[in-house]
Write a structure and sequence with these properties.
Number of strands: 0
Radius of gyration: 21 Å
Mean pLDDT: 85
Helix content: 55-70%
Number of domains: 1
Low-confidence stretches: none
Strand content: under 5%
Structural class: mainly alpha
Distance between the termini: 57 Å
Largest sheet: none
């Protein structure tokens, strides 16, 4: 008998098990709908600022993850090599357009 169920000894089935996935799914759907509705209303300069802000947020989250996990890594050089190779390949394939 399995004793360490996540919900106080009762087994979790169905929707209860997938609440995070469903919340993410509906969040993406609602966010996409709102974005499509207001996209035509946003001026180019505001759109550029929003993209810059979202890029900085993603950069901050990534840097935090690196700072938290780099000391635990056994392959720190692999991280640096991966960034270098990724940068070279991205430039070669002209991913920026």
């Amino acid at each position: 008998m399995i004793r360490d169920w996540p919900s106080h000894g009762r087994p979790v089935f169905g929707v209860q098990k997938m609440i995070g996935v469903l919340t993410n799914f509906f969040g993406v759907i609602v966010g996409t709908a709102i974005g499509c509705l207001i996209n035509a209303e946003i001026q180019q300069k505001y759109e550029d600022v929003l993209y810059a802000i979202l890029g900085l947020i993603a950069l901050g989250i990534g840097m935090e993850s690196i700072a938290a996990n780099m000391p635990k890594s056994h392959y720190q050089v692999l991280f640096i090599v991966s960034l270098a190779v990724g940068g070279l390949l991205g430039t070669w394939w002209d991913l920026d357009g």
